[in-house]
Amino acid sequence: MLLDAVPDRDHDGVGDDADNCPDDANADQSDVDSDGVGDICDDCPLVSSPQGIDGDGDHVGDACDPHVSTPGDCLVLLDRFASVDQFAAHWEVESKAGTTPSIEPYAGGVRVTSDPTYHRVTMIAHDGAGLRFDGRYDVQMLANATLATSAVAVMTSFNDAMPMFRGVFCEVLYTGTGLFIATGDDNVNTSVQVIPTFQVGSAIRMLYSASSTTEMAACRVDIGIGVAATQIGPLPDSAGVSGFIVYDDPIDAKAVALYKPLGSCPTPIVR
User: Fold this and answer.
1) What is the reported pLDDT for 231?
2) Tens digit of pLDDT for each residue in 164-220?
3) Calculated CA dihedral for residues 13, 41, 29, 108, nearest 10 degrees
């Protein structure tokens, strides 16, 4: 009896008819934004969106392109927290002296909880050589969170000398009259009320983006299966340090992407 071989043109052990990246080897089939396209061939790995909509032709989809009308943006890092053993080599934790934040990596994420006496902890990405990424980056992060008290927030610092203290933020907070999404920095804070009947303890999913050059922060929050709101605020300063800051309630960071306008793109680090 003759059996037909299952086509597998990228030789990753997953047949083409079931492979979410049939031309790029990805045996793990990871798809963090759950759009049916594998991370390594997705032109917006953290944003569920149709493929190939790329107005400036830089291979970064418009739905996640930090500079949608200017070509040259490059995905430099996509970290999906796949390896618990490598977490300490991939990320640097910075917190106020005398505080002990809780950092709990697991396969597919890291739970970050600030010290109760100082509600802020900074996570800074390392490159393949174990060094901080040099320069400023556009940062995107996909995270899950539960409002245990009243607020959860993420921030990207633009102060290389003091990455813990200033930056552009996305905050989801409950004030007693409803759920609010806010973006801003130390000088500007714009907010919108989303759901008046939101209950503390409900799960949310956050997609946070901060641009290093256009001085904008964007915050999208999914509650249940629906998108609650999108809020974008112009800011007087720009993002930069290659990572993120967590304050108030804990979050589960699921993936972080760093972009930079380089023109000629190197092969991104995907881990």
Assistant:
1) 45
2) 556 677 888 887 777 788 777 766 667 777 777 776 677 788 888 877 766 567 777
3) 140
Cα–Cα distance measured from residue 271 to residue 268, given in angstroms and rounded to the nearest whole number: 10
Q: DSSP string covering 21-48, please?
A: STTS--TT---TT-SSS-GGG-SSTTS-
Q: For the chain, what are the domain ranges?
A: 58-270
Tokens of 2: 């003759």
CATH number belonging to domain 58-270: 2.60.120.200
Phi, psi of 89 (to 5 degrees): -80, -25
In the chain, the amino acid numbered 33 is: D
User: Residue 32's closest CA among 85, 84, 109, 100?
Assistant: 109
Query: Residue 79 and residue 269: Cα distance in Å, rounded?
Result: 8
Burial of 261 (0-12, 13-18, 19+ CB in 10 A): middle
pTM for the whole structure: 0.86
Q: In terms of Cα–Cα distance, which of 269, 246, 221, 257 is closest to 111?
A: 246
pLDDT at 238 (0 to 100): 44
